[in-house]
Write a structure and sequence with these properties.
It contains twelve helices and eight strands. By secondary structure, the protein is an alpha/beta fold. Helix 6 packs across helix 7. The structure holds 3-methyl-2-oxobutanoic acid.
Length: 275
């Protein structure tokens, strides 16, 4: 038996059972090499459509395609053996109808080997979530600040500051839970609302910019590694400065090349004379 065959992946029911227990840790991953580094440490790897902005330099997540998600999802599954892998359904791949959502979610599960899909939206997506769950597709919801709705929301500002907005987002959480999602990401909402949602729904809430009141946390890994050179939101804690380390390594390499210090003898194939 290979080493990887001995490691059991964390399953969707195991994650679902963590409600109110040990907090769930989730990070985004988009590539084999990053998945390999994160896999031993976190419960869940999210192949988020944030890859459009983080990896591809797009202005929003709207131009991310299903094929991009499948290619990166499959890479993350290949690079991991322990964490539960969840892949985002991208914009316009599920909003049209439950049938469209099933067709595309089925492709994501079959072609990546991931355990679940994540989709954005509240009560308006409840019918679709129920349709998927009844057909064997585990669904993670995503409410609050939903980046695919950037045009409708008018930007990426924190949500839930008014009573009306709080009521709407709480109702979204209830609808997503009743529809059968096993977990829900709550993004960019004020702390009292995150707490109220977490106390009100029987499913695991995973916060990003939604306080410590949630049942788990997720961050975009490039943000917390200091690798993404764009705007860093207030809720991100920088655990490393990998971008700076890479830039310093590139500078040292270029200087070595210019000074003919690289490659040195130990990096060079010597001629082997026949005996
Ligand atoms: O796409 C993503 O990375 C996400 C997280 C921000 C939760 O949805």
């Amino acid at each position: 038996m290979s080493a990887s065959a001995q490691i059991k992946r964390i399953t969707v029911p195991e994650l679902a059972a963590r409600k109110g227990k040990e907090p769930v840790s989730m990070l985004t991953a988009y590539t084999v090499s990053v998945a390999r580094q994160l896999d031993p440490h976190v419960d869940c790897l999210l192949v988020g459509d944030s890859l459009g902005m983080v990896l591809y330099g797009l202005d929003s997540t709207l131009a991310v395609t299903l094929d991009m998600m499948i290619a990166h999802g499959a890479a993350v599954v290949r690079g991991s053996s322990r964490a539960c892998v969840v892949v985002d359904l991208p914009w316009a791949s599920y909003q049209e109808s439950p049938q469209q959502a099933f067709r595309n979610a089925a492709r994501v599960l079959a072609e990546t080997g991931c355990a679940a899909v994540k989709l954005e939206g509240g009560r308006e997506m409840a019918e679709t979530i129920e349709f998927l769950v009844r057909r064997g597709v585990p669904v993670m919801g995503h409410i609050g600040l939903t980046p695919q709705a950037v045009n409708a929301l008018g930007g990426y500002k924190a949500r839930g500051r008014s009573d009306a907005e709080q009521e709407k987002i709480l109702d979204d959480a209830r609808a997503v839970a009743e529809a059968g999602a096993f977990s829900v990401v709550i993004e960019g909402v004020v702390e009292p609302l995150a707490r109220k949602i977490t106390e009100s729904v029987p499913i695991v809430t995973i916060g990003i910019g939604a306080s410590a009141a949630c049942d788990g946390q997720v961050l975009v890994s490039d943000d917390m590694f200091g690798l993404f050179s764009g705007f860093t939101p207030k809720f991100v804690k920088r655990y490393a400065e990998i971008g700076q380390t890479m830039a310093e390594a590139a500078r040292a390499y270029a200087e070595d090349v210019r000074a003919r210090r690289f490659p040195a003898a130990e990096h060079t194939f010597a001629e082997r004379k026949p005996a």
